[in-house]
Amino acid sequence: MRKILVIGAAGQIGSELTLKLRDLYGGDNVIAGIRKTKPSEKITGTGPCEVVNALDLEGFVAVVKKYKIDTIINMAAILSATGENKPMLAWDVNINGLINVLEVAREFKMKQVLVPSSIAVFGPTTPSDNTPQETILKPGTMYGVTKVAGELLGDYYVKRYGMDVRGLRYPGIISHETPPGGGTTDYAVAIYFEAVKNRRYKCFVNEETRLPMMYMPDCLKSTIELMQADFSRLRHHCDFNVGAMSFSAGELAASVKKYMPEFEISYEPDDRQAIADSWPDSVDDSAAREEWGWKPDYDLDAMTRDMLKAVNARHEKGLI
Ligand code: AKB
Predict the structure, then answer these.
(1) Which of 83, 139, 270, 296 could pair with 244 as two cysteines, CB 3.0-4.6 Å apart?
(2) Residues of the chain whose pLDDT is less than 50?
(3) Do 91 and 186 belong to one domain?
Protein backbone atom coordinates (compact mmCIF):
# COMPACT_ATOMS: atom_id res chain seq x y z
CA MET A 1 0.00 0.00 0.00
CA ARG A 2 1.23 3.51 -0.81
CA LYS A 3 2.18 5.97 1.95
CA ILE A 4 1.09 9.32 0.58
CA LEU A 5 1.95 12.79 1.87
CA VAL A 6 -0.35 15.57 0.62
CA ILE A 7 1.40 18.92 1.07
CA GLY A 8 -1.16 21.74 1.15
CA ALA A 9 -3.88 19.45 2.53
CA ALA A 10 -5.94 22.32 3.95
CA GLY A 11 -6.27 24.06 0.56
CA GLN A 12 -9.09 23.97 -2.00
CA ILE A 13 -7.94 20.86 -3.89
CA GLY A 14 -5.71 19.36 -1.17
CA SER A 15 -8.49 19.10 1.39
CA GLU A 16 -10.86 17.12 -0.84
CA LEU A 17 -8.10 15.09 -2.46
CA THR A 18 -6.81 13.99 0.97
CA LEU A 19 -10.26 12.64 1.90
CA LYS A 20 -10.72 10.90 -1.46
CA LEU A 21 -7.27 9.29 -1.21
CA ARG A 22 -8.04 8.12 2.34
CA ASP A 23 -11.16 6.39 0.99
CA LEU A 24 -9.02 4.65 -1.62
CA TYR A 25 -5.83 3.86 0.31
CA GLY A 26 -6.94 3.90 3.96
CA GLY A 27 -6.88 6.82 6.43
CA ASP A 28 -3.53 5.93 8.00
CA ASN A 29 -1.82 5.79 4.61
CA VAL A 30 -2.57 9.38 3.61
CA ILE A 31 -0.82 12.03 5.70
CA ALA A 32 -2.30 15.52 5.55
CA GLY A 33 0.53 18.05 5.42
CA ILE A 34 -0.75 21.41 6.56
CA ARG A 35 0.91 24.73 7.24
CA LYS A 36 -0.94 27.69 8.72
CA THR A 37 -4.54 27.07 7.70
CA LYS A 38 -6.48 25.16 10.31
CA PRO A 39 -7.68 21.92 8.72
CA SER A 40 -11.31 20.81 9.00
CA GLU A 41 -12.34 18.09 11.46
CA LYS A 42 -12.86 15.82 8.46
CA ILE A 43 -9.11 16.04 7.82
CA THR A 44 -7.94 15.75 11.42
CA GLY A 45 -10.46 13.01 12.24
CA THR A 46 -9.79 10.62 9.35
CA GLY A 47 -6.02 10.17 9.41
CA PRO A 48 -2.66 11.63 10.43
CA CYS A 49 -2.08 15.34 10.12
CA GLU A 50 1.36 17.00 10.35
CA VAL A 51 2.76 20.48 9.91
CA VAL A 52 4.76 20.34 6.65
CA ASN A 53 6.44 23.27 4.95
CA ALA A 54 8.57 22.14 2.01
CA LEU A 55 10.82 25.17 2.64
CA ASP A 56 11.69 23.81 6.09
CA LEU A 57 13.69 20.78 4.95
CA GLU A 58 14.43 19.39 8.41
CA GLY A 59 10.76 19.28 9.47
CA PHE A 60 9.69 17.99 6.04
CA VAL A 61 12.24 15.13 6.07
CA ALA A 62 11.26 14.21 9.63
CA VAL A 63 7.66 13.63 8.47
CA VAL A 64 8.84 11.65 5.43
CA LYS A 65 10.92 9.38 7.71
CA LYS A 66 8.25 9.08 10.42
CA TYR A 67 5.63 7.72 8.00
CA LYS A 68 7.98 6.08 5.41
CA ILE A 69 6.39 8.24 2.71
CA ASP A 70 6.72 6.88 -0.85
CA THR A 71 4.41 9.29 -2.72
CA ILE A 72 4.22 13.08 -2.46
CA ILE A 73 1.43 15.26 -3.82
CA ASN A 74 2.56 18.86 -3.73
CA MET A 75 -0.61 20.98 -3.64
CA ALA A 76 0.99 23.95 -1.84
CA ALA A 77 1.10 26.99 -4.12
CA ILE A 78 0.75 30.74 -4.25
CA LEU A 79 -1.89 31.36 -6.95
CA SER A 80 -1.99 33.95 -9.73
CA ALA A 81 -3.50 37.04 -8.09
CA THR A 82 -1.54 36.74 -4.82
CA GLY A 83 1.55 35.94 -6.87
CA GLU A 84 1.27 39.30 -8.66
CA ASN A 85 1.18 41.10 -5.30
CA LYS A 86 3.97 38.97 -3.82
CA PRO A 87 6.13 37.66 -6.69
CA MET A 88 9.06 36.62 -4.48
CA LEU A 89 6.77 34.65 -2.18
CA ALA A 90 5.31 32.91 -5.26
CA TRP A 91 8.81 32.02 -6.44
CA ASP A 92 9.84 30.79 -3.00
CA VAL A 93 6.82 28.55 -2.37
CA ASN A 94 6.23 27.39 -5.94
CA ILE A 95 9.84 26.83 -7.00
CA ASN A 96 12.10 26.53 -3.94
CA GLY A 97 9.40 24.43 -2.26
CA LEU A 98 9.04 22.26 -5.36
CA ILE A 99 12.76 21.61 -5.81
CA ASN A 100 12.91 20.50 -2.16
CA VAL A 101 10.02 18.11 -2.82
CA LEU A 102 11.76 16.67 -5.87
CA GLU A 103 15.11 16.35 -4.12
CA VAL A 104 13.59 14.67 -1.04
CA ALA A 105 11.67 12.31 -3.35
CA ARG A 106 14.90 11.49 -5.19
CA GLU A 107 16.89 10.94 -2.00
CA PHE A 108 14.23 8.69 -0.47
CA LYS A 109 13.67 6.84 -3.77
CA MET A 110 9.95 7.60 -3.77
CA LYS A 111 7.54 5.74 -6.02
CA GLN A 112 5.77 8.85 -7.32
CA VAL A 113 5.52 12.64 -7.10
CA LEU A 114 2.53 14.67 -8.28
CA VAL A 115 3.39 18.23 -9.30
CA PRO A 116 0.30 20.19 -10.29
CA SER A 117 0.48 22.76 -13.06
CA SER A 118 -2.10 25.22 -14.38
CA ILE A 119 -3.54 26.93 -17.45
CA ALA A 120 -1.44 29.84 -16.14
CA VAL A 121 1.53 28.39 -18.09
CA PHE A 122 -0.08 29.96 -21.17
CA GLY A 123 0.13 33.64 -22.01
CA PRO A 124 -1.19 36.32 -24.32
CA THR A 125 0.64 34.95 -27.38
CA THR A 126 -0.63 31.37 -26.92
CA PRO A 127 -3.48 30.38 -29.29
CA SER A 128 -6.47 30.74 -26.99
CA ASP A 129 -9.10 28.50 -28.62
CA ASN A 130 -8.65 24.80 -27.98
CA THR A 131 -5.07 25.56 -26.85
CA PRO A 132 -2.82 22.71 -28.05
CA GLN A 133 -0.81 20.49 -25.72
CA GLU A 134 2.45 21.66 -27.31
CA THR A 135 2.37 25.42 -27.77
CA ILE A 136 3.84 28.79 -26.78
CA LEU A 137 4.53 28.98 -23.02
CA LYS A 138 5.18 32.66 -22.32
CA PRO A 139 3.05 33.51 -19.29
CA GLY A 140 2.58 37.08 -18.08
CA THR A 141 2.37 36.30 -14.36
CA MET A 142 4.92 35.14 -11.80
CA TYR A 143 2.56 32.26 -10.98
CA GLY A 144 2.68 31.23 -14.64
CA VAL A 145 6.48 31.54 -14.73
CA THR A 146 6.75 29.23 -11.71
CA LYS A 147 4.31 26.74 -13.25
CA VAL A 148 6.27 26.56 -16.54
CA ALA A 149 9.48 26.08 -14.55
CA GLY A 150 7.71 23.47 -12.39
CA GLU A 151 6.66 21.45 -15.46
CA LEU A 152 10.20 21.59 -16.84
CA LEU A 153 11.71 20.61 -13.49
CA GLY A 154 9.36 17.66 -13.12
CA ASP A 155 10.10 16.46 -16.65
CA TYR A 156 13.83 16.89 -15.96
CA TYR A 157 13.63 14.58 -12.92
CA VAL A 158 11.83 11.99 -15.06
CA LYS A 159 14.49 12.13 -17.76
CA ARG A 160 17.60 12.66 -15.64
CA TYR A 161 16.82 10.37 -12.68
CA GLY A 162 14.19 8.02 -14.11
CA MET A 163 11.71 9.16 -11.48
CA ASP A 164 7.92 8.94 -11.76
CA VAL A 165 6.80 12.57 -11.69
CA ARG A 166 3.40 13.57 -13.10
CA GLY A 167 1.24 16.66 -13.33
CA LEU A 168 -1.80 18.29 -14.90
CA ARG A 169 -2.53 21.82 -16.04
CA TYR A 170 -5.58 22.47 -13.89
CA PRO A 171 -8.15 24.90 -15.23
CA GLY A 172 -10.19 26.99 -12.74
CA ILE A 173 -11.53 24.56 -10.12
CA ILE A 174 -15.03 25.04 -8.73
CA SER A 175 -15.99 23.50 -5.39
CA HIS A 176 -18.29 23.99 -2.40
CA GLU A 177 -16.11 22.76 0.48
CA THR A 178 -12.85 24.72 0.91
CA PRO A 179 -12.78 28.14 -0.81
CA PRO A 180 -9.89 28.91 -3.16
CA GLY A 181 -7.67 31.85 -2.23
CA GLY A 182 -5.71 34.32 -4.31
CA GLY A 183 -6.61 32.96 -7.75
CA THR A 184 -8.05 34.65 -10.84
CA THR A 185 -10.72 32.00 -11.39
CA ASP A 186 -12.09 32.47 -7.83
CA TYR A 187 -15.13 34.40 -9.22
CA ALA A 188 -16.52 31.13 -10.58
CA VAL A 189 -16.73 29.80 -7.00
CA ALA A 190 -17.74 33.05 -5.29
CA ILE A 191 -20.74 33.50 -7.62
CA TYR A 192 -22.46 30.41 -6.13
CA PHE A 193 -21.80 31.39 -2.51
CA GLU A 194 -22.97 34.98 -3.08
CA ALA A 195 -26.02 33.80 -5.04
CA VAL A 196 -27.12 31.63 -2.12
CA LYS A 197 -26.28 34.15 0.62
CA ASN A 198 -27.24 37.48 -1.02
CA ARG A 199 -28.95 36.69 -4.34
CA ARG A 200 -26.43 38.98 -6.06
CA TYR A 201 -22.76 39.06 -7.05
CA LYS A 202 -20.31 41.74 -8.21
CA CYS A 203 -17.96 39.97 -10.59
CA PHE A 204 -14.32 41.09 -10.88
CA VAL A 205 -13.95 40.08 -14.56
CA ASN A 206 -16.18 41.23 -17.41
CA GLU A 207 -19.17 39.35 -18.80
CA GLU A 208 -17.29 38.12 -21.91
CA THR A 209 -14.37 36.57 -19.98
CA ARG A 210 -14.19 32.93 -21.05
CA LEU A 211 -11.92 30.43 -19.30
CA PRO A 212 -11.50 26.65 -19.04
CA MET A 213 -13.09 25.41 -15.79
CA MET A 214 -13.67 22.11 -14.00
CA TYR A 215 -15.93 20.91 -11.18
CA MET A 216 -14.17 19.38 -8.15
CA PRO A 217 -15.41 15.78 -8.71
CA ASP A 218 -13.77 15.89 -12.16
CA CYS A 219 -10.65 17.48 -10.66
CA LEU A 220 -10.33 14.62 -8.15
CA LYS A 221 -11.07 12.06 -10.84
CA SER A 222 -8.43 13.47 -13.22
CA THR A 223 -5.79 13.66 -10.47
CA ILE A 224 -6.36 10.10 -9.26
CA GLU A 225 -6.61 8.67 -12.78
CA LEU A 226 -3.31 10.30 -13.71
CA MET A 227 -1.69 8.97 -10.50
CA GLN A 228 -2.92 5.46 -11.31
CA ALA A 229 -2.14 5.52 -15.04
CA ASP A 230 0.39 3.03 -16.40
CA PHE A 231 3.69 4.96 -16.51
CA SER A 232 4.85 3.13 -19.64
CA ARG A 233 1.86 4.54 -21.57
CA LEU A 234 2.74 8.17 -20.76
CA ARG A 235 4.51 10.21 -23.42
CA HIS A 236 3.94 13.42 -21.45
CA HIS A 237 4.54 13.64 -17.72
CA CYS A 238 4.12 16.97 -15.94
CA ASP A 239 2.16 19.08 -18.40
CA PHE A 240 -1.13 17.41 -19.35
CA ASN A 241 -3.88 19.75 -20.60
CA VAL A 242 -7.15 18.64 -18.96
CA GLY A 243 -10.41 20.08 -20.19
CA ALA A 244 -13.90 19.80 -18.80
CA MET A 245 -15.91 22.91 -19.70
CA SER A 246 -15.38 26.41 -20.98
CA PHE A 247 -17.81 29.26 -20.29
CA SER A 248 -17.91 33.04 -20.05
CA ALA A 249 -18.76 34.83 -16.80
CA GLY A 250 -22.07 35.81 -18.48
CA GLU A 251 -22.88 32.18 -19.32
CA LEU A 252 -22.06 31.17 -15.75
CA ALA A 253 -24.45 33.84 -14.43
CA ALA A 254 -27.14 32.67 -16.90
CA SER A 255 -26.75 29.11 -15.63
CA VAL A 256 -27.23 30.29 -12.01
CA LYS A 257 -30.27 32.38 -13.07
CA LYS A 258 -31.84 29.30 -14.67
CA TYR A 259 -32.18 27.74 -11.21
CA MET A 260 -32.46 31.00 -9.25
CA PRO A 261 -34.32 33.58 -11.42
CA GLU A 262 -34.00 36.36 -8.82
CA PHE A 263 -30.18 36.25 -8.97
CA GLU A 264 -28.53 39.49 -10.14
CA ILE A 265 -24.98 40.05 -11.37
CA SER A 266 -22.93 43.18 -12.04
CA TYR A 267 -19.42 43.44 -13.47
CA GLU A 268 -16.56 45.53 -12.09
CA PRO A 269 -13.30 44.25 -13.59
CA ASP A 270 -10.15 44.76 -11.50
CA ASP A 271 -6.47 43.80 -11.97
CA ARG A 272 -7.41 40.16 -12.38
CA GLN A 273 -9.07 40.93 -15.75
CA ALA A 274 -5.66 41.23 -17.45
CA ILE A 275 -4.60 37.86 -16.02
CA ALA A 276 -7.81 36.21 -17.19
CA ASP A 277 -7.43 37.78 -20.65
CA SER A 278 -3.97 36.23 -20.98
CA TRP A 279 -5.27 32.68 -20.39
CA PRO A 280 -6.94 30.38 -22.94
CA ASP A 281 -10.67 30.10 -23.59
CA SER A 282 -10.48 26.32 -23.85
CA VAL A 283 -7.82 23.59 -24.04
CA ASP A 284 -7.20 20.59 -26.26
CA ASP A 285 -6.81 17.65 -23.88
CA SER A 286 -6.46 14.88 -26.47
CA ALA A 287 -3.07 13.80 -25.03
CA ALA A 288 -4.70 13.15 -21.62
CA ARG A 289 -7.56 11.30 -23.35
CA GLU A 290 -5.19 9.13 -25.39
CA GLU A 291 -2.51 8.45 -22.79
CA TRP A 292 -4.63 7.78 -19.70
CA GLY A 293 -8.26 7.80 -20.84
CA TRP A 294 -9.35 11.20 -19.48
CA LYS A 295 -13.05 12.04 -19.86
CA PRO A 296 -14.91 14.59 -17.71
CA ASP A 297 -18.39 13.98 -16.25
CA TYR A 298 -19.77 17.46 -15.56
CA ASP A 299 -20.99 20.25 -17.83
CA LEU A 300 -22.00 23.74 -16.68
CA ASP A 301 -25.65 23.09 -15.82
CA ALA A 302 -24.95 19.79 -14.07
CA MET A 303 -22.34 21.58 -11.96
CA THR A 304 -24.66 24.52 -11.21
CA ARG A 305 -27.44 22.23 -9.96
CA ASP A 306 -25.00 20.37 -7.73
CA MET A 307 -23.24 23.51 -6.45
CA LEU A 308 -26.49 25.34 -5.58
CA LYS A 309 -27.82 22.29 -3.74
CA ALA A 310 -24.61 21.83 -1.74
CA VAL A 311 -24.07 25.53 -0.97
CA ASN A 312 -27.75 25.92 0.05
CA ALA A 313 -27.42 22.95 2.41
CA ARG A 314 -24.35 24.48 4.07
CA HIS A 315 -26.13 27.84 4.32
CA GLU A 316 -29.17 26.29 5.98
CA LYS A 317 -26.92 24.60 8.55
CA GLY A 318 -25.33 28.01 9.29
CA LEU A 319 -21.92 26.80 8.05
CA ILE A 320 -21.47 29.70 5.62
C1 AKB B 1 -5.74 30.74 -10.43
O2 AKB B 1 -6.76 31.34 -10.81
O3 AKB B 1 -4.69 31.29 -10.15
C4 AKB B 1 -5.81 29.22 -10.34
C5 AKB B 1 -5.32 28.56 -11.59
C6 AKB B 1 -6.11 28.63 -12.84
O7 AKB B 1 -4.30 27.96 -11.57
N8 AKB B 1 -7.15 28.82 -10.06
Answers:
(1) 296
(2) none
(3) no
